[in-house]
């Protein structure tokens, strides 16, 4: 039997002032202490590409938490693997760049 989970999506304006709102949105749905920081890093990476809107998705299944940030346009490589990439790979059990070149994601295990 598959583990039950939830998925939430929200579009945020592509403005730096939205970053605290992204962190609060994540914090209000999962208790993992690293989740808001990971969401922030993903949001900033997409924001850095000049996106006018950043679509955030939060998915849970059992103890797994996956956070995704999506741009309406392909992301330049520097925005997907820039300095924040070290933070993501340090905090996440897995992180990736989707083949459509528009989505970055980070996955956490436990502490739900």
Description of the molecule:
The chain is an alpha+beta fold and 112 residues long. Helices cover 30% and strands 32% of the residues. Helix 2 (35-47) packs antiparallel against helix 4 (84-91).
Count the E strands: 5
Radius of gyration (Å): 13 Å
Give the neighbour order of strands across the main sheet: 1-2-3-5-4
Number of helices: 4
Structural shape: globular
CA-to-CA gap between the ends?
A: 20 Å
Instruction: Provide the residue-averaged pLDDT.
Output: 89
Describe the sheet with the most strands: 5 strands, antiparallel
Helix content: 25-40%
Unreliable sequence segments = none
Please state roughly what percent of the residues sit in beta strands, choosing from under 5%, 5-15%, 15-25%, 25-35%, 35-45% or over 45%.
25-35%
Given helix and strand content, the structural type is alpha+beta
Name the helix and strand elements from N-terminus to C-terminus, one letter apiece.
Answer: EHHEEHHEE
């Amino acid at each position: 039997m598959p583990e039950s989970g939830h998925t939430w999506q929200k579009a945020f304006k592509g403005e730096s002032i939205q970053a605290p709102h992204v962190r609060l949105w994540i914090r209000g749905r999962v208790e993992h202490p690293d989740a808001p920081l990971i969401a922030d890093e993903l949001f900033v990476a997409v924001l850095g590409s000049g996106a006018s809107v950043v679509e955030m998705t939060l998915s849970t299944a059992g103890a797994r938490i996956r956070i995704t940030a999506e741009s309406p346009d392909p992301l330049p490589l520097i925005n997907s693997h820039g300095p924040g990439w070290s933070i993501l790979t340090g905090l996440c059990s897995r992180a990736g760049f989707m083949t459509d070149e528009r989505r970055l994601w980070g996955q956490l295990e436990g502490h739900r």
